[in-house]
Structure formats: structure tokens, C-alpha cells
Amino acid sequence: MRIGVGLGLAAVLASLAAADPATRSVDALAYRQKILRILDAVELQVPQLTAIASAAANHYVRDETLGLGVDGTRCFIHEASYRSGGLIGVSRPDQMEKAPWKGIVLYALREGQTTEDAKRLAGYAKRGCPLVIFGTERLLNQVHLSETAVLGKVVVPAGSAAAPTYPLATMATLWSWMGEFVAACTRAEKMPPMYQSIRVPMARARNDQLRNVRFHADKPRPMAGGALAKAYLHSMRSRFEKLQQRQAATITRIAQLAVERRRQGKRLFMVGGAHGAAYLTEGSNHPGLFEDITQRWRQQHAKDYPPDHPKIAFKPGDILLVVGYDYVPNTGGWFNLADKARQGGATLILCIATFRPDQMSQVKPGDVLLNMPWGLGDADVSLPGYDVKILPTSNVLAAAVYGMINAEMLALASATTQPASIHDWVREVIDRKEEGDRPVASEGQ
């Protein structure tokens, strides 16, 4: 069955596709416009999100043996689970694989892996798990399953330009859908417990008390369909506008510095911070301007890391871009990454929230700092009568920053004033993207 979309959404999706040829130079401002169109497209399908979320909530409320789980892209899995503003009861694939887990599965399709995705989804369906499938219109049309197993297919309004939008659009769509799921539960007189950020005093104790609670004992105030998704998108736009107003010059500065260092033959490293931002380079459409060492850095510090395997070494003039959360990556499993980069002579670029004095004291004079415009709690939407806000914006903003830096770099490197070596670099990036975009023969057959 081919996915159909409404005329309004179809027009926005067409505008995203029209801006996507890989040979077109897309700077940070153009990428910003793409993000706004994505948020518009998500809002246009709020009625569909509400309908699918209501169907899922109906199952979840009526059958208390059903869990709620996430699978698919790693960005989607890690964004949805164990985090502030999200549902406490969400399970990850390792938990879902254990018998006798059964529940509603939220699944984000993976670029170039829809054949494997279809097999995994069929396995969930065989176990009696209702499915909610997220993906671009193209990806959704490549997966064919029994309609009785699928509660709904959610269109992720992403393009496939050299500065990609799929992680960002997936996270924005996920949280809009999750808001509608919570709202649908309230209309059934049930309130599922939601995480509060552990940065907030006493939040850990609160979260622990609710860990095995399916619904709060008190009846919630019913929320109208569409209200929470629209409130989230409104807040997302507001924070994104603040980002653009306050940090546009810093984004340009970062891109200029990265292109100049690349021209000098230096290496450009990046790490993603927490949750979904740790997987922003996932998928075939990633431009590859930065070398993602998020997982490799941790792996090389593991006890079982082979001594003869190469290790990451920073050299003078290299760049380490941290598309982070609210901390400088030194402690908490980061093995002194920031300090090691500085000691090797690399420039540290920190794209993080700045509300923590203990972390700001670790920023050094030679670092570049981009202030991510979100605050303590990382949850933006209020529910009347509920004790915490829900639905985080942090990693959609992180994806936006990373995308704008990449887009600005491509525009700068494509300028006619750049040396031939830079043009070769951009051409290699575009060739990789075009190769990754070619359909896999077995997909959709």
C-alpha cells in the first residue's frame, strides 16, 4: 500500500525535495528555512498523529499487559527512552527481545535497511505487537506489512540533501506524536508517568518511585486532541528562533574555521552528546565533513580494546566539535576527551547548554562556545495539574546546529575562491551522498 498525504503536507514535502539536489549549495540560512518547513509539515499532519496516537493509547489503556517500545534508528531509540520529558515506561530493543515482552512498537525506518526493517517489524507483528512506523514517504512505501498489524504510518518530513534532516525530523515528529499519545491517555482518564530531568533537585527519587507505575492514581485533566503536539511545535519554533538570533554568527565562525583547517590538512572530529544527538551521523545521507568519534573514543578506552588497534590522537590545528548536551565531555564515561583534545593542540568547539556553573567553569579561553537555548529540565510543555513539564527540545536543536554548520561549510567550500583541493573534498562528499541515495535492489520488492 502506498502512503498518501494531504495536499498541504504534500506541498511542503515537495518544497523540501525541490531544495535537495546535492549539487546545490545550501548555507546555514537555507538550512534554517528547511527546518522551519519541516516543523510546518509536522504541524500539518497533527490530525493524523492524533488519530494514530489515540488508537495506540486505546490499546495501551485497555490492555495493561502491553508495553510501549522503540526500535529502528539508533537516534530514535536513544532519543525516546530514559530521558527527561519522555514516558517512563518506554522499552528498548534489548528489553523487547526478551520473552514474554509484548507491546506497542514505535519503529523508525533506517536508510538503506528497509528489507531488514521489514523482517524485524514482521517479527513484532507475529508476536501480536501493534506497530506505529515512522519514516519518510519513500521509506514507508518500501515496507509492506499486513494492515491489521499496523496502527499507523507516520510521515517524517525529511529531505535528503548533503546536509541531511532525517534525524532532526524524526525526533521532532516523535515528540509531537508522544504528546498526542499522552493527551489521548488523559482523555481515557489515565496519566502515564513522565521522566523529569535528573539535573532538577529530587528528580532521581521521583523517577525511581514511578519506575514500575503504569498510570498515576489520580485522574488527569483531559487534553484536547492536537493541543500538546502544537504546544511542543510552538515551543520548538520559539527556541529555534532564539538559536538563530543569538548564535548565527557563531555558526558561521565555526564553519569558516572548519573549512580553513580542512584546507590546511587538519582533521575535523565530532562527538554527539546525550540521547539522540549521539547518533546524528547515522545513515547513508550524512555528508561526512566531520569524523564522528562518539563511539570509537569510548571503545578505545575499554579494557578489551586490542592493543594493536589504532587509537584516536589529536594534533595541533585539529578540531573537535562537541554537539553536546549540558556538559563538557571529560567525566561520566568520556575519559577526559575535552582535555585530551586540548592537550593535543586541537581547537575545542562546544555546542552545549550553558546553565550549569560547574560546567562553564571548565570552558577554556581557547575554546569556541555556542550556547544552546534550552534550560534546566529540558521539557517544554505543561499539562494542567501535572507536576512536571514534558517533551524535550534539546536534541532537535542539537541536530539543527549540526546541520547548519555542515550546510554553511558546504557553501563556503563550494565558493569559487577556494583552492581546488577544497572543491575535490566537496565533490567527494557529494559523490558519497549520491552513492548512499541509490536504492537497494531488494528494497520495496
List keywords for this structure.
five-stranded parallel sheet, alpha/beta, disordered C terminus, Rossmann fold, 15 helices, 445 residues, 2 domains
How many helices does DSSP assign? 15
Low-confidence residue ranges? 21-25, 432-445
Query: What is the straight-line distance between the termini?
Result: 12 Å
CATH hierarchy, class of the largest domain: Alpha Beta
Q: State the order of secondary-structure elements, H for helix, E for strand.
A: HHHEHEHEHEHEHHHEEHEHEHEHH
**Class by helix and strand content?**
alpha/beta
Q: Which fold name corresponds to the CATH topology of the largest domain?
A: Rossmann fold
Proper CATH architecture of the largest domain? 3-Layer(aba) Sandwich
* Morphology: globular
Share of residues in helices: 40-55%
* Domains (count): 2
Biggest sheet features = 5 strands, parallel
Averaging pLDDT over every residue, what do you get?
89
Strand coverage percent: 5-15%
* Superfamily (CATH H level) name of the largest domain: Glucose-6-phosphate isomerase like protein, domain 1
In spatial order, strands of the major sheet run: 2-1-3-4-5
In short:
With 445 residues, the chain is of the alpha/beta class.
Structure, explained:
The protein folds into two domains: 26-233, Glucose-6-phosphate isomerase like protein, domain 1 (Rossmann fold, 3-Layer(aba) Sandwich), CATH 3.40.50; 247-413, Rossmann fold (3-Layer(aba) Sandwich), CATH 3.40.50.10490. Helix content is 44%, strand content 11%. The protein has helices spanning 7-18, 28-44, 46-62, 74-80, 93-96, 114-126, 137-140, 166-187, 203-210, 227-263, 294-299, 337-343, 357-360, 394-414, 420-437, and strands spanning 67-72, 90-91, 103-108, 131-135, 150-155, 268-272, 291-292, 319-323, 347-352, 368-371. The strands form two sheets. A five-stranded parallel β-sheet has the order 2-1-3-4-5, sandwiched between helices. A five-stranded parallel β-sheet has the order 7-6-8-9-10, with helices on both faces. Helix 4 (74-80) links the parallel strand 1 and strand 2. Helix 2 packs antiparallel against helix 14 (394-414), helix 8 packs antiparallel against helix 14 (394-414) and helix 10 (227-263) packs parallel to helix 14. The radius of gyration is 22 Å and the shape is globular.
